[in-house]
Amino acid sequence: MMTEQRAQDTNRQLHILRAEDWEAADIHTLLTKAESYAAEPRCQPIPKRLFAVNLFYEPSTRTKISFEAAERNLGLEILPFDVNTSSVCKGESLYDTVKTIESVGADVIVIRHSKERYFEELQDRIKVPIINGGDGCGDHPTQTLLDLMTIYQEFKGFKGRNVVITGDIRHSRVARSHMKLLKKLGALVHVSGPPAWIPEEYMPMFVPIDDAVRQADVMMMLRIQNERHRDNHTETKASYYERYGLTLEREQVMKKNSIIMHPGPVNRGVEIASELVECSRSRIFRQMTNGVFARMAVLTHVLKNARGGKVHE
Ligand code: CP
Fold it and tell me: Which CATH number goes with the domain that contains 63?
């Protein structure tokens, strides 16, 4: 008989909740799959009628629309769900909402929620795959995958590449998991930005912005996550840009083949000069395109796992 622990472990393998659960080999498998979708996005739609639900308790442009594009490319049917017109407004709990979505026949559920680790109350009780589309300051695994895909396309690998993650590290849900995964893959990771927004444990990786721009292969800029700040900060947009932003002058001293990334949404003229968002070094819109393919790879992976290795029967 299956022990409770084994049942929990099996159930947890159903879901994609934290990027750090991936090993280097998992990343390479998913990136290969994502690249195959990039070459031919609608190559092999899933013929069986499968339903996807995207449950977004927090605003999103990129993640929500690219999950929808990924699901449609794969031939999944999307059951529309809008938190603001649902019974969430009448006080329905997260668990009851997700259990309802499972009960009506969803095959995969994508969730974004402002509560860090919201998935802990779901992961052992929900039997259809959950993909974390972002939890508070916690994690955003598909963003990590699409960013890794973008770096891999550029440099054909990660080993020895110098990635500087710059900005509001403390409140970012991408910074922590990016650091862990990039290190597993052999990249050199540094952080830059206001020291007050860099957790103590990352200070040994700190480089001032004017050094960072000279040494980075990848300048990964983050926005100020105002919605997650508990204390009011005194940083004005102009002072932040001047002291920590990727200005036109700083871009001038970047290495020849180095690139600029940003998970979005971008605040032009705050963390990055408006002109640099679409400059030749920028891969910001490439990241968004890759988001569709990375999410197709993750959706196929979880559906296969949940369906005993088959999605095309
Ligand atoms: N990068 C990202 O998660 O963007 P959205 O908040 O628009 O989904």
Answer: 3.40.50.1370
Query: Rounded to two decimals, what is the model's pTM?
Result: 0.93
192: left (phi over 0), alpha (psi -120 to 50) or beta: beta
What's the CA-to-centroid distance between 55 and ligand 1, angstroms?
14
Same domain for 203 and 85: no
Q: Which of 143, 149, 178, 225 to mutate to test the pocket of ligand 1 (most atoms within 8 A of CB)?
A: 143
Domain co-membership, 11 together with 134: yes
Distance CA 126, CA 12 (A): 10
Phi–psi pair at 204, nearest 5 degrees: -60, -15
Ligand 1 atom nearest 264 alpha carbon: 1
Claim to verify: residue 231 and residue 295 sit in the same structural domain: no
State the chain's maximal CA–CA distance in angstroms: 65
One domain, residues 16 and 136: yes
Cβ of 265 less than 6 Å from ligand 1: yes
Q: Check if 172 has its Cβ closer than 6 Å to any atom of ligand 1.
A: no
Residue 266 beta carbon below 6 angstroms from any ligand 1 atom: no
Shortest-distance Cα residue to atom 5 of ligand 1: 60
Tell me, yes or no, whether 162 and 87 share the same domain: no
How many independent structural domains does the chain possess? Answer: 2
Per-residue pLDDT 10s for the chain (313 aa) are 445 555 555 555 899 999 999 999 999 999 999 999 999 887 767 778 899 999 999 999 999 999 999 999 999 999 999 999 999 999 999 999 999 999 999 999 999 999 999 999 999 999 999 999 999 989 999 999 999 999 999 999 999 999 999 999 998 988 988 999 999 999 999 999 999 999 999 999 999 999 999 999 999 999 987 777 767 677 788 999 999 999 999 999 999 999 999 999 999 999 999 999 999 999 999 999 999 999 999 999 999 988 776 665 4
Ligand 1 pocket member 41 (CB < 6 A) = no
Atom of ligand 1 nearest to the CA of 59: 6
33 exposed, middle or buried (CB, 10 Å; 0-12, 13-18, 19+)?
A: middle
Any atom of ligand 1 within 6 Å of the Cβ of 208: no
